[in-house]
Structure formats: C-alpha cells, structure tokens
Amino acid sequence: MADTFLDLLSIEKYLCDLAVEKVGPIIKAKSGTQHTYDAKSGSRAVDIVTAIDKQVENLIWSNVKQQYPDFLFVGEESFVAGQTQITDEPTFIIDPIDGTTNFVHDFPFSCTSLGLTVGKEPVVGVIYNPHLNLLISASKSNGVRVNGEEFDVRAKKLEMGSLKLSSSVVALQPGSAREGPNFTTKMKTYQNLLSCDGGFVHGFRNLGSSAMTLAYICLGYLDSYWDGGCYSWDVCAGWCILKETGGRILGANPGEWEVPVHNRTYLAVRGCEDPQEQEEYIKRFWDCVDGKLQYN
Amino acid sequence: MALTKEQLKDIETKLVELAAKQVGPLIKEHAGTQFEAFDDKANQVDLVTAVDKKIESIIKQSLSTLYPDFKFVGEESYEEDHTVIGKEPTFIIDPIDGTTNFIHGYPYSCTSMGLVENGVPVCGVVFNPHLDEMYHASAGNGAFLNGKPLKVTERELKLQQSVIALEAGSERSSGSSGDDNFDIKQATYRNLLSDQGGYIHGSRSCGSAAMNMCMVAAGKLDAYWEGGCWAWDVCAGWCILAEAGGIVVGGNPQEWEVPVDERCYLAVRGGCSQPAQKGFVKEFWSHVAGKLKYRW
C-alpha cells in the first residue's frame, strides 16, 4: 500500500482529535501526581516509567486499531528490543507520553507524540502538549497546522533570517545514559558547541522531551537539536512535521546524511530559505562532534 | 522605615498592572523580530536590543512617578562599580529577562521586577506574555501564579531524584585571564549527571533566570544553580520562591547567606522540611567542581 492511496490529511485529523480529546486530558490531570514509578526493566535509576504511560498507550492502541485495523503499531511501552521491526506497511509509531521525567516532576513539557510511517517514511505527525495547549500537526505534502490553523512556514522562515551555527540556539539533552563513551561524547560535544573557541552557539536549551524539541524547531523557536539514545517514537511525529517546514533530520555523527527513523542518533535542523546554508550549518555542526555516538 | 505587609501588597498589585498592561504587550509584539538590530554587549552571545532600553525607561518612568522616594536599579542603566544596592527600598528590574530567547522568539522571555528593602527581596513580579504566566509575591503575602496561590505539593526532596535547571550562560572561555568559571560549570554539570556522581533525574534549561526561579517556586523544577547572572535576573524570582517555601543560598559551597547581587546562586524548592532543603544543598555543593568567581 502506497501513501498516495491513503488520505493522510484525514489520518492527521483523526490523530489530532484523539490527542486533544482523549490523551491530553489524562496527561494534564496526572502530571506531577505519580510519586511512585519504576525504573524501566533492567535499566537505569534515571530511566523511569509510570503506570499512566502504559494506560495511555493502551488507550491510543485500542482507538487506532478500531479506526485503522490493517495498520501496524509500534509503541514505546509495547516495544520489544530485537523483535519489533518497522516495515514498509503503514505503521503507527507512538510515544504515549514523551518527556516522562517532566511528567513525573510536572515540568510542563510532557506531550503525546503520534506518528505514522509508510514505506518507513514518517508521513503523518501529531504532537500535543496539554500544559501549553499546543497542538502541532502535519502530513506529507499537506503542510503544517498549529492548533488546527494553517501555519505559514514561509513567513516564519523569512522572519527568522539566516541560519548560522554561531547565531543559533541548539537543543541538547544529556538523556538517561550517564556512563560510558556516549556520555563522554555528549559532554565533550556540548563543550565544543558552547565554547568561544568552538561553535560558540547563542545558547542551548534543554526541554527534556524530544517531541517538544522538534515541535519547537518547527515553530521557529529553536534552530537545531542534537541527541543520541532516543527511539523512533520520540522522533517519528516530529520528523514528519519538521520535513514539512523544510527542516531536515540526519544522524548525530558526521557524514550520516540519510538515516532511518529508528537510527537512535539524530541531528534535526530547521528549514531556511537557502538549502546551501542549511547544508553548511550541518557540516559546521558535525565539526563540533567529538567522538561517536553508538547505540545497538 | 519598614514597608508594611499592606504597602507591599499594594506595590505588588501596581507592578502586576504595569507588567500586564504596558511591558507584556511590548515584549510579545517584538519577540523574534530583532535579528538585524541587536548590538554586542560583552561578546556576540550577550545581546541587547533597543526594545530592552525602551522598556526599562517605561518602567523607570512609571515607578518614579508612583514611588518617587525609592531607588531604581535596572539592567540597562546599571554601571559596574557605581551602582550599589543599599538599605533603602530599591526596585531591581530586568526589562526583558531571557534576551536570547526574546531575539529568537523562544517563548521564555519575560519581564522581571523586584523590590528589595534592607537588601532583602520583598516584592517580585515576573510576567511571561508568551505563555501568559504572571508570577507575583510580596513578603508575608504569599506567592501567586495568575492570582492563584502557588502550592507546592508536599513530597521528598532528594538530589538523585531531582530535575535541576542548569544554564550555559554567555561566558564561554576556558581558563583565559585566570577565569575558570566555564570549565567549573561544565565539570559540575558532568558531576551532577554522571552515574558516578549525583545521577540526577535530569537537567533543564529555558534560558531565563527569572523563569527558572519561578519554575522552582512552583515546584516544577527542584532546583536551579547559576553563576554569572545579576541581581535583576533573580531579585523578583527570589521573593516569589521564598514566599512559596523555597530558599536561595550561594552557588559555592558553605555560602548559606548571600546578598541579592552575589551573582552565584543555588535556588531550592519548597514542599518539604527545612532540614530536607539543607541536606539537599549540602549534597549539591559536594558536586560543585571549584569556586565560581564573579567579584574581582
């Protein structure tokens, strides 16, 4: 089944309604109330999951299964490492609550992130943050909507002006892996990006949610985002939206111009008027990467 | 003279009105549109705009009419070595806190208006017009968000389970002129995050000291550690935090009592006992990797 035969706009609309009407209210009501949580199985004390994550994933799954019975489903909570594969079939890739640590602490950057891939390409993306009441959505070739209203991508790009590393604000997240070579690579790269002898970026921001970070790049609030360790469901929805704004997602390591949605390391860069400028930005950014991020 | 609780509430109300009616609309209108207009302050990262100056003069004008006997210290009119914060009631104002955010249209710029008496922050108003969040407080009168009392949920406070605001700031040189602040900060971040160190749940950065202080006051962040900011970045938030049960100590170990212009701070949320706060502070300090220095 090719995406040309699917009415992507109607799928986007369906996911928007699901996010706003059913998922958002639960996230908002339960944020900051979960004082008991587990460390994920066999995992780190800072990698946490709550009962609500599972409950919300079930809710999303049962809804989309009813509406789109032939589509496959990959969710953060039901994912099985080594088994779950992303195929060419239409596949919902969803994170019920992105920013779980934010959710536990009631930092207002938890959201739901609902994506669809066809032929392994993200073609629908919906991100909803109920704390800020921010809904951003897109589908392939259909542009971007913010809280249901068409978003003028071109006007935003013109307003933002040129894209340069030294005048950019970059999102960086240490994440939950705090040991070994990946942690060292991240710390060194942050220092390179910030240092006056390196990228000397205007600033970094850390929201603690990959999906919200991608949403903020799409809205023109941030220029780029560099991370390793996240999963397809963290980036799938944002990836589709970013692409519709002229932005790009690449690998976090130098030279990775084309990467799959489950790559685990990413560099997301906002759109700009001049594609050459974007490419230059990517290369300059990769120059600051010290080491190699690797995840299996 | 000492200002009474009633007088302080009246000042708080006036500041809220000034922020909502005059300052907020200007910040909202101009955010993200200043790309070609900014001039350099200390270096290319630290930006100051014409709007910053315009807003400061509007605030100064209003306050000098309402409170002709009070002193005024503002970011834009501050003169190093000349401006001194004395015992008299003194407004300490940052017209736009989060200037980099303001320039980039990232929705965490705000106005921050505080009042000190005998060097102690006794009134504070922080308004973020993008998110429509008005934090306000005065000594003895409690802290509020948009008129509703800020209530921090009672819960444990432990370093390992905390989310802490950490910013890079604009000072980014390594070891030049005997100034190790950048390196000390980076090493401290690493200590806090590492599985061999604090192993905290996470760090966050919104790029605005005043917003960070308010997020700690609201209990959405557990703490905020900073070196390099100024009295006007923290004065208003300090009062709001104190009224919400939080504390501010020095960013360097053993500095339990610091003046508002210390330039180096650790802010810790309420919602727990004083011994728990002190325990948290001591444990945090054990990860600080050197002495941050801002007075020469």
Automatic annotation (TrEMBL), chain A:
Keywords (A to Z) from UniProt: Hydrolase, Lithium, Magnesium, Metal-binding
Native organism taxonomy: Eukaryota, Fungi, Dikarya, Ascomycota, Saccharomycotina
Cofactor(s), names only, from the UniProt record: Mg(2+)
Pfam family, one: Inositol_P
PROSITE patterns: IMP_1, IMP_2
Catalysed transformations (reactions): a myo-inositol phosphate + H2O = myo-inositol + phosphate
Family under the similarity heading: Belongs to the inositol monophosphatase superfamily.
The protein's name in its UniProt record: Inositol-1-monophosphatase
Organism field: Lachancea dasiensis
Keyword Nucleotide-binding set for record: no
UniProt: Mg(2+) binding residues: E76, D95, I97, D98, D234
Enzyme class: hydrolase
UniProt-listed Enzyme Commission number(s): 3.1.3.25
SUPFAM superfamilies: Carbohydrate phosphatase
Gene Ontology biological process terms, A to Z: inositol biosynthetic process; inositol phosphate catabolic process; phosphatidylinositol phosphate biosynthetic process; signal transduction
Any one GO molecular-function label of the UniProt entry: inositol monophosphate 1-phosphatase activity
Pathway linked to the protein: Polyol metabolism; myo-inositol biosynthesis; myo-inositol from D-glucose 6-phosphate: step 2/2
From TrEMBL, chain B:
Entry-linked CDD domains: IMPase
E.C. code: 3.1.3.25
One GO-annotated biological process of the protein: inositol phosphate catabolic process
Sample GO molecular function, one term: metal ion binding
Catalytic activity: a myo-inositol phosphate + H2O = myo-inositol + phosphate
UniProt cross-references to SUPFAM superfamilies, sorted A to Z: Carbohydrate phosphatase
Residues that coordinate or bind Mg(2+): E75, D94, I96, D97, D233
InterPro entries with a match to the protein in the record: IMPase, Inositol_monoP_metal-BS, Inositol_monophosphatase-like, Inositol_monophosphatase_CS
Cofactor annotation: Mg(2+)
Keywords: Hydrolase, Lithium, Magnesium, Metal-binding
The keyword Oxidoreductase is assigned to this record: no
PROSITE patterns: IMP_1, IMP_2
Pathway(s) served: Polyol metabolism; myo-inositol biosynthesis; myo-inositol from D-glucose 6-phosphate: step 2/2
Family: Belongs to the inositol monophosphatase superfamily.
Record's protein name: Inositol-1-monophosphatase
UniProt organism field: Lachancea dasiensis
